Known about the structure:
The chain contains four helices and no strands. It is mainly alpha-helical. It has one domain (3-54).
Amino acid sequence: MEALDALETAPPAVRAAALALLDQVSAPLTERQLAGAFRAHGIGLLDAKRMARALRKLDIIAVAPRGP
């Protein structure tokens, strides 16, 4: 069963909870959250703020480091 099929056939309460979680994790990051993510990976405060400000018109939903 594919994920979409599972969601469609799930009980209403399960479907509502799953959709609420998806909405939370797919919401675009705020400028502050984006700067915080940059800072967490070693970028200085001023550079992180500048980068976040430059990207504020994009809907970014995740920031992750590259693999090993």
